[in-house]
Each structure stands twice: as C-alpha cells, then as structure tokens.
Amino acid sequence: MIQDVFIMLFAGLVAGLVGGLLGLGGGIVLMPVLRFVLGYPPEIAAGTCILAVFCTTAGGSWRHYREGHIEYRSLIPVILAGAVTTLIFSILFVRAAGHPRFLDLGIGVVFCVVAVRMIRGGLRHRVGRLSLEQAERSLPGTTRQKLVIGASAGILPGLFGIGTGAILVPVFTILLGAQIKVAIGSSLACFMVNAAISSAFKLFQGFVDLGAAVPLCVGTVVGANLGARINRRSPSSLLKLVFGLMFLVVAARFIYSGLTK
Fold it and tell me: Cα torsion at 65, 68, 73, 79 (round to 10°)?
C-alpha cells in the first residue's frame, strides 16, 4: 500500500511536469500508470484520472491568468459548449463503463493521435513572430468556431476521462491564429471546466478511487509548478518529440489491451 502511494505521488509529479512544460492536463501520463502499473479497471482509472487532471488544469489556468494569458470573455462560447457535451457524455459514461474493451480501444486511439501530433510538433517546431505583448491576448475566432471547438472538446473528458490539451492548443494556434501562450492558457481554462464536470459526475457514479486521487492531486500540483519554471529554459520541440514517442508506445499498449480482452 505504501509503495502504491509513492507510485501515485511520483506519477502525479511527472504528469504535472508534463502539463507545465507542454500545456497538457497530465492524463496522458496518469491513465497508463493507473491502468497498467497499479492495475485499475478502465472505468475506475478514467474517473480517478480526470479528478487529478482537474487539479492540474486549475493550478495551470490560475497561473496563466495571473500572467495575463487568459481573457475569459473570449472563452465563454468554448466553455459553454464544452460544458454541455461533457455533461452529456459523462451521463453516457455509465454505459461505456460496462465495456472496458471499448474504453481501452478509445483511449488508445486518442493517445495515438496525440502522440503523432506531438511528434510532428517536435519535428516541425516553429517560432512565432509576435511576442505576447504584440499579440492579441484574447482568444481570436468567431463565436460559431468556438462553439464547434468547445462542443468537440467536451467529448473526451466526459466519455474517456482524459484531456484535450494536446488537441485544443494546436486548434487554437493553427485554426484560430492564437499566440502560443494564449492558446495554452485558454486550453487549460476551458478544459478545467470540462474536467470539473466530468470528475463530479464520475465521483457521484462511483468511478473515483479517492485513496488514489489524493496523492495523485498532490503530485500534479507540485509537478505543474516545477514544469512551469522549467518551461522557460527547455527546448519544447525536443520535449514534444521525446514524449510523443513515449506516448505512441503507450497508445499501442492500450489498443493491444482492448483488442485482446
């Protein structure tokens, strides 16, 4: 039991570090640890993971808000649409929980997409031309675009208990043209609301192990602060490439688990 607690603390620390460095919620680290190291069933791993991810996103979004990277009025359409779809798919999660094979396969496919996106980002790293002072601090884009993005972003946390940071950040930067720090801060703020709704539902539905969630949350909070400090001195392109390759292996493990159940 004590060994498991240390594993959870360390996993939370690493998840927080990855979140602070790359603007992610950390679920891509926590989920495989809960599933394959600690042996949790898919549904309990998903519920416990999303609660820990909420702690990471809450701390990260507050930090970015204080640094001026978040303008909440421009995020309202994304947050509202995401809240609705998260609510709907959190209710549907009860049915998905009865099919662990489906959960593992779905998570594996999402992890594969995220891993490929990170590897591409590492190989094709581009430096933006504008500094934060020169760029628009609010999230650009039309209300319709933001509603569609928000609605799509609410599916994964509701149905699989994992985040959308690795998807929202490139969508905000490439599709909407947001500055990278604004994209990261906005992603964390939007996903924080999704994670809060999803974790509340999964806690009520009985899919959260609080004994595991507490050390995970402690580790993520500490790790996120360390990651934010290291972020300023680390080559993000190299980090994306390394973590992308690691997550590609993890994705294969989830897919294999889903296919062999």
Answer: -40
pLDDT in tens, 160-202: 887 777 678 778 887 888 887 788 888 888 989 999 999 999 9
Burial 108-121 (b: 16+ CB within 10 A, else e): bebbbebbebbbeb
10 Å Cβ neighbour count for 215?
20
Question: What CA–CA distance (Å, rounded) separates 186 from 128?
Answer: 17
> How far is 92 from 261, CA to CA, in rounded Å?
22
The alpha-carbon radius of gyration of the chain (Å, integer) is: 17
Domain regions of the chain by residue span: 2-260
pTM of structure: 0.80
**Distant-in-sequence, close-in-space partners of 28: CB < 8 Å, separation ≥ 6:** 18, 111, 114, 162, 163, 166, 247, 250
